Amino acid sequence: MTNLTLKQLRYFEALARHNHFGRAADACSISQPAISVQIRELEETLGTELFQRGPRQVRLTNFGEEFALRVRDILRSVDELTDLARASRDRLVGRLRIGVIPTIAPYLLPAIIGNLARMHDGLDIHVRETQTQKLIQELADGRLDAAIVALPVSEPSLTEIVLFAENFVLVRPGEDEGKPVPNREMLREMRLLLLEEGHCFRDQALSFCNMHSARPRELLDGSSLSTLVQMVGAGVGVTLIPEMAVPVETRSAAVSVAHFANPQPSRTIGMIWRKTSPIAKQLMLISEVVRQAAETLRAQHNPASVELNLVAAAQ
Questions:
Q1: Which of 112, 119, 160, 179 has the most CB atoms within 10 Å of its CB?
Q2: Where is the HTH lysR-type domain (predicted)?
């Protein structure tokens, strides 16, 4: 079998991921007819179809699914060869693909990007904001170099570096300021606004309240922390948010912020990457940049509003 090209394999992987020629073409920055031609030529070279074409989307054939597994391994290995060359240099240059969960990205990312740009002027930073499970999968597939998430993720193939810990605070309507702070038992009886299914922050908040499930009338879902805080300001209920989000999310909302009694609900934030990554040494240095950005954030705000508890990095 001859004439398979890396370009064709990358186009195939994009189409297998998006199940749509238009979206795959956009992801590859080429036209839809061009990617269609490349996929057809790949299928002709292989002598079999890789996709079942439908009017609105495509699906992998049985052979296509098996082929996709091999292709992802090949592309990941090719990318790691490039990383191996990058690792031989004194400083990190070129593309850095980093993922961040939505409950961290808006608050910490600006400082991280600014610091990295100043320290590594040859770095081309690509950011991906999505939920933890998607970030883990994209790391495994080689589409990300590292991700900033809540720990632990407990994936044997990934290195986990602890960066800092932070508490959760209670956000309630402004007229509740000064009232006693409810404990977790009282919180279970209140109308609690949380992020929708799939966000790890939702699971952490439910765990604090000892609520593995909740009655629909008592639990309302939102797509972002901003939405939740604005709903609280409108008198809909109460919510929990991480301390780093307080300055941004509460500045234009009629809400009050209260801290729970000890032991306070909290989360541990860390950075993860593949154990096989050739640039692991450079990623460790970048994790220090993230840690310093968190420390700067703490110093910029009143500890009563934002108090990040920095901890030593895991060795």
A1: 112
A2: 4-61
Dihedral angle sign, alpha carbons of residues 63, 65, 71, 73: negative
Residue 305's pLDDT band (cuts 50, 70, 90): very low
Strand-strand pairing, 51-53 and 58-60: antiparallel
Q: What is the tens place of the pLDDT at every residue in 231-281?
A: 999 999 999 999 999 999 999 899 999 999 988 999 999 999 999 898 898
**Which alpha helices (H) appear in 29-151, and where do they start and end?**
32-46, 62-87, 105-119, 132-140
* Domains by residue range for the chain, with CATH: 4-84 (1.10.10.10), 89-161+268-301 (3.40.190.10), 163-264 (3.40.190.10)
Q: What global pTM score does this model have?
A: 0.77
Residue of 84, 117, 114, 103 whose CA lies nearest to 282: 84
Residue 54 pLDDT level (bands cut at 50, 70, 90): confident
